[in-house]
Every structure is written in structure tokens, then in C-alpha cells.
Design brief:
This protein has about 350 residues and is α/β, with parallel strands linked by helices. Helices cover about 45% and strands about 10% of the residues. The chain has a 6-stranded mixed β-sheet with strand order 1-3-2-4-5-9. A 3-stranded antiparallel β-sheet has the order 7-6-8, with helices on one face.
């Protein structure tokens, strides 16, 4: 069942009771469950589901047996493996401390946000948002563009479809959040506003957009900002990447044109090919104009519209090997500057 049900809630309750019985404490369920991966399967003769889609099991009679069995197994395992039990209890205590710290910081941040404005700063929202009960139709997904600076966002805001395209403009380079605790999000206005705009503070289940699109310039600064944003999502909201919500907007680097035809190019190879084509094959070459777009803000809204309409070019961000994510983030975004510099210098063309 996609949305769980009585078997899943009973499984969770059994784990909590087993941990509390062994530790002689009263931990909260969210502190105990954080980081735990498990599977539960039940056979029910007459299953009752809470909707026609059969996404959630509703049989209450199976609950007591599952709770009792899971509780007993957890407690017994801890008594037989005391070293492991100490590690788990230590992790739970750490989770409880972090949650309490977050509560106070979160309270301050929300109070500050209420004083500043009801709306999220830097967000030009769209009118349509999907919900669990009413998901977007294929081809009509809504999206949010995360841009760098006001100039880039200006073109997108003017060219966008306000019904299903939102824009969040960064004020500068976002923080490198690798290795930072969740409390940092509540102390940094920009990161906090982005989290609020996406509505993922409590759970990514509240995400207001089908697609989160990173729209940065195709230069060194733009690539750096893109990496900082990817680090933000991978570090704090990895499931957004795993579920395929993160995309990169591909925009042209060159515009090649003559008096009759205009071609937009996404690479140097495409630019050279377009230049040969528009110049013509005769002895007398046609005069062509080549424009190098240094940033998204240099593309006029009239031109930009064609790059975010039905012909939008997106690259979905995926994870090839989940266990490699910490190593990749540590190497590229961590504090190992000498090793990273040596790696880059060795591969310079």
C-alpha cells in the first residue's frame, strides 16, 4: 500500500514501545524512527481499504498482534546486542536534542517571517498547484524556476505562464550547507524562504510544485550556484532528487542569425554548424551575426518565452548510486581544498 495503513502504524508503534521498554525512557516516535529502514508484510483474509485506490489498509484487528510482536523482537534484540543497543539509543537521544533545538529556532524564524510578510519574499508564485487528491495531468505539470539574481528572473517572470510557472530569485550565491545542521536553514533568510516557498519544511509530501528547475547562467558562477543548490537538496531533502523532482534548465549559449533566419545553439559545436549553414555554400558568404549570451538576463523576454514553453529543454537530476552521494558531496563541497585543487589542476584542458 502506497500510503501505509494499520499494519505500518502498528509496526512503528511496536518499534517505539520496544525501544522505550529497553531504555526505560519515553522517547518520541519521530526521534526513534529517524534513519530506520524496515519492511512489513501481512496476510489478511478480508482486507479493508480506506479508498477505492486501495492505497491504505484499514483493518484494525491486525494492530495488537503486530505491535506486540515487533515490540518483543526489538526488546529481545537489544538485550542480546547491548553494544548495538547503546549506539541506537545514543542516536535517538541525539535526534531528540536536535528536534528540541530546531523547535526553538523554528519558532523564532516563523515569528520573524510573520512580522516581515505573509507572502514568501523572492517568490513570484503561479496560480495552479497540484494536491494529493488532484495531481497534475501529464504535460500540464506546474514548475518553479530558481534563478540567480533579479536580471535573470526578470526575463523569466515576464515570459512565463503565470498559471503553472513560478519563479524564486536568489539574491546571490547560496550558502554551502554541506556538513551543516538543519538549524542553519532557520538562521539563513534565503534558504528558509526557499524551503517555505516549496512547502517542504515539515515533509516533502507538501511540495507545491511538480518540477523544481535550476535556471542558472552557463558560466563559472552559474555552475557554482547550481552545485550549491544541488548540495542543498541532496543534504537536506534527498528524497526530492530520488523522486525525480529536480531539473536543470538548458538555455542557449549562442544566437546565430542572418537577415532571414535565426538559430539558437546550446554548444560551440552547434554554433559552428549553424554558422556554416547560415553563411551559405556559395562563393559569396552571407553576413551572419553571432551573439554569445553571458547570462539569462541578456535574453529578452520575447526570446526567452520559447525556451520555457512546450519546447522547454530539461535535464532531470538523478542518483546513480545512493551510497556514493556522501562521498561525492564530501569531495566536491567539503573542506578538502588541497585534494580538490590537485584533482582540478590534473584535469585542466
Amino acid at each position: 500500500t502506497n500510503e501505509g495503513g494499520t499494519h505500518l502504524s502498528a509496526f512503528r508503534e511496536g518499534i517505539l514501545k520496544g525501544v522505550n521498554e529497553f531504555s526505560k525512557k519515553k522517547f518520541a516516535g519521530e526521534d526513534v524512527r529517524d534513519g530506520i529502514v524496515g519492511a512489513v508484510a501481512v496476510k489478511v483474509k478480508e482486507p479493508i481499504f480506506e479508498s477505492q485506490t486501495k492505497n491504505k489498509l484499514g483493518n484494525t484487528e491486525i494492530r495488537p498482534a503486530i505491535v506486540a510482536e515487533v515490540k518483543e523482537q526489538v526488546s529481545e534484540f537489544f538485550y542480546k546486542n547491548e553494544e548495538t543497543a547503546e549506539i541506537v539509543i545514543g542516536k535517538v537521544q541525539q535526534n531528540a536534542k536536535l528536534r528540541k533545538d530546531l523547535q526553538s529556532v523554528r519558532k523564532e524564524a516563523k515569528a520573524k517571517a510573520r512580522k516581515a510578510a505573509i507572502k514568501v519574499p523572492q517568490l513570484k508564485d503561479c496560480k495552479y498547484h497540484p494536491t494529493k487528491g488532484k495531481p497534475s495531468k501529464p504535460g500540464r505539470e506546474n514548475m518553479i524556476f530558481i534563478t540567480e539574481g533579479q536580471s535573470a528572473s526578470g526575463s523569466i517572470v515576464t515570459a512565463r505562464d503565470p498559471m503553472r510557472q513560478a519563479v524564486f530569485s536568489l539574491k546571490g550565491k547560496p550558502l554551502n550547507v554541506y556538513g551543516q545542521s538543519m538549524t542553519l536553514l532557520y538562521k539563513n533568510d534565503e534558504m528558509y524562504n526557499l524551503m517555505r516557498g516549496l512547502n517542504i519544511e515539515d515533509s516533502i509530501g507538501g511540495l507545491r510544485y511538480d518540477k523544481i528547475i535550476l535556471a542558472t547562467d552557463a558560466d563559472v558562477d552559474g555552475l557554482h550556484i547550481r552545485n550549491l543548490l544541488l548540495t542543498f537538496f541532496l543534504h537536506y531533502f534527498e528524497n526530492l532528487v530520488k523522486r525525480g523532482h529536480i531539473y536543470i534548465l538548458e538555455t542557449p549559449i549562442f544566437r546565430v542569425r542572418n537577415k532571414k533566419e535565426t538559430t539558437y545553439c546550446y554548444s560551440i559545436a552547434e554554433q559552428k554548424q549553424a554558422s556554416r549553414k547560415l553563411a551559405g555554400r556559395g562563393k559569396v558568404k552571407k553576413q551572419i551575426e553571432i551573439t554569445r549570451f553571458k547570462g539569462l538576463g541578456e535574453i529578452s523576454p520575447r526570446e526567452f518565452k520559447q525556451f520555457i514553453d512546450s519546447n522547454i529543454r530539461l535535464r532531470q537530476v538523478g542518483i546513480d548510486a545512493l551510497n556514493e552521494v556522501p562521498n561525492i558531496l564530501s569531495f566536491y563541497m567539503g573542506k578538502n581544498t588541497p585534494k580538490r585543487k590537485a584533482y582540478i589542476m590534473k584535469r585542466l584542458i
